[in-house]
Amino acid sequence: MAALNVFSAENLSKRYGERLLFEGLTFGLSRGQKCAIVAKNGTGKTTLLNGICGVEPVDDGRISMDAATQWSYLPQDPDYDGQQTILDHLYASDMAAVKAMRIYAAAADGDDDEALQAAYEGMDLHNAWDFEARAKEVLGRLNLHNLGRTMATLSGGERRRIALARVLIEEPDILFLDEPTNHLDLDMIQWLERYLAQSKMTILMITHDRYFLENVCDTILELDDQTLYKYKGNYSYYLEKREERKENALANRAKARGIFKRELEWMRSTPSARTGKSKSRIERFYEIKKAAKKRLEEDDMALRLNPHRLGGKIIELHKVAHGFDGDLLFENLTHHFKRG
Known about the structure:
The protein is of the alpha/beta class. It has helices at 45-52, 86-90, 96-108, 113-125, 128-141, 156-170, 186-198, 210-216, 235-267, 279-293, and strands at 5-16, 19-30, 34-38, 60-65, 71-74, 174-178, 202-206, 219-224, 227-231, 313-324, 327-338.
């Protein structure tokens, strides 16, 4: 039996003026699924994520989550109050565990035993003790210390890591991440990979780090030509199946061009050769024309290869072709170059 979705998006559409970014996108996430959106730069990945999280509403469509579902979003440029301390910023969430911690901290500073007992029970009820332990681990791993500093005194990289720490500490049911590895060093990235891969959270992310995609995600959503393609597997599986899809698209376009050539001759024939009964054929001609003229975009996705993470593999070539002055020198060259 198929897993029930904890998140659903139906018929999402967005345009800026005359420019259509996406239309009719429909997909869902099941509990614990780790999913990434990949696409060429400027295609609308961040716009889609912002639309899902209500930062910038989509033009059409519906987002569905259970009312009890807790979710958090790490945008590329998180908002912050410059006067808040790091600690206040981290614990400013409305999540039940965070509220329980704030109540407990206030009760512990007072002399009302009943209030303290109630606060203690609230910590138990909302697993806030685990929250505190998780906060210590996350802050340590992201090298965030001296939590009394105000947000205004921090560098952009520190504020970004604090925003990441906050959503990880909250540990919501669904976590939306836009470039989570920005401003992280190698040790932090590798720790974050393990943390997210082992987490029970449902995750939808955007990242240009292909190793992160490979090690964390079990589903890839590719946004291409205003259409969403779903691949149930990691990044390597996606590359393989995407190549198959592109080859099929090329074959279909070649077939459409052959039919288009034949139908074009018919369209150019004298009007007497085209009766009233041929209206459907004329309509079909324009559909075939669109398919025959379809431009298949070359891959322009900029995925980062962190040089510190390459290991023994230096260069990967996949179906490379090259020519000079109209002469094809080689094609379909695939090879992995290793160190040494």
